[in-house]
Amino acid sequence: MYAFSRTVNSMHSEDIKLLMKQSSGEGMISFAGGMPNNDLFPVSEIDEIYNNLNDDIKKLCFQYGPTTGYPPLVRSLQKLMLRKGLPAKTDKVLITTGSLQAISIITQEFVNEGDVILTESPCFVGAISVFETYGAKIVSIPIDSEGIDIQFLKNAIETLNKPPKFLYITPNFHNPAGIIYTEERRKELLSVLSGTDIILIEDDAYGDLYFDRKDKGLTKPIKSFEGYEVEIIYTGSFSKILGPGFRLGYMLSSFEIFDKAESIKQALDACTSNFMQILATEFITGGYLEPYLKFLRKEYSERKILLQESLKTHMPKGINWVEPRGGFYIWLSLPQQVKASSLFTDCLKKGVVFVTGRTFDPENHKDDHIRLSFSNMPKDTIEKGVILLSQVIQDHIRDVENLEFRRENQ
Asked: CATH for 10-41+292-402?
């Protein structure tokens, strides 16, 4: 028997392993994968970029780079951030190996075992796993269609025995709930946090993937709001744009936080892949990014519409959801008597998979939602998958109703 460390015992780590297996099952109709569709990757553009690099830059692709990131990529990101109103001239950018590494670095920087942190409920499972690994005590705050529950947040802060180190949120096209915070809710959140010394981690992996241009203004980063005394660390990712295989993320923070984060990253992996950073830099500076984002928004919008219409046509009464305005996900609320884990078992037999809501519950209890991802779905399988799913849900509702009827008539 090996003497494993406590850090391997995250109860959500197994959920992530299962999620990855579900996402790639042969012959399955999978609503599980929170990832882009392989056919959407910019393969020809990347081929063109690499083939046009001069030999000196190609050689640099194979070399170590600065821990803080490839300088031309840092400068390119600063320009993009400034367009979003972010303080990229005064704060510092750190390139990370995926945005999950940024979350891990921040957690390692601030959390000692037993420290309290706040998250949304539901919450991105990768972040939950990181927080558990470092021994944080997670206090989760419910969200609604407009964002985090402000009154619940106030009560939690007032009643906790020790102040939380930070609050982690995903305000734009939330994973898994698919919602976007309203401007009013963002300002209310900042008002609650002002002067508390609670750091806000703003995870913005999906903000560029709005479906309608009129909604672009809703994605304005919370870190760009002025007039509040709140320390905000902003994180982002190329995983939902160029592709998860690039393993490129970034964080924007004050210099003091950046300085410690750089030291932690140096100990973790020395530097993020120069190869991928150089390709990403050329993708941005070569004028590929905006046309490609426009293409992705159209593709994901079409998939969302297909899923939305299929759900409206085939789902039984009692199944509710908020139609997303961007991102990858629809979050289905089930009737109280129907359990997502039982649905999953029966759907698996029918050849369709999704992710149960319990996966995204920091306490690993709530079993009344399922997450459907449309981003990785071939368009011609979406309705078939919804029909199979709805049939299983109808069977479960009917079984529960029959059981209740028998009990009432005994």
From this structure: 3.90.1150.10
Write the pLDDT tens digit of every residue in 182-227.
Answer: 999 999 999 999 999 999 999 999 999 999 999 999 999 999 999 9
Task: Give the residue carrying structure tokens 């011609």.
Answer: 380
Q: Where in the chain is the domain with CATH 3.40.640.10?
A: 43-285
Residue 108: name the closest of 129, 133, 140, 139 by CA.
133
Q: Cis (ω within 30 of 0) for the bond into 176?
A: yes
User: Residue 369 forms beta bridges with which residues?
Assistant: 333
Residue 334 has phi, psi (to 5 degrees) of: -95, 155
Strand pairing report for 166-169 and 369-373: unpaired
- Using DSSP bridges, classify how beta strands 137-144 and 147-148 pair: parallel, antiparallel or unpaired: antiparallel
Three-point CA angle 285, 102, 184, nearest 5° = 85
Rounded to whole angstroms, the Cα distance separating 61 from 64 reads: 8
Residues ≥6 apart with Cβ < 8 Å to 90: none
Q: Do you find a cis peptide bond into 122, omega within 30 degrees of 0? A: yes
- Name residue 252's beta-bridge partners: 93, 234
Distance from C-alpha of 136 to C-alpha of 107, rounded to nearest angstrom: 9
Q: How far apart are CA 153 and CA 149, in angstroms?
A: 6
CATH of domain 43-285: 3.40.640.10
Q: What is the pLDDT of residues 315-369, one digit of tens each?
A: 999 999 999 999 999 999 999 889 999 999 999 999 999 999 999 999 988 999 9
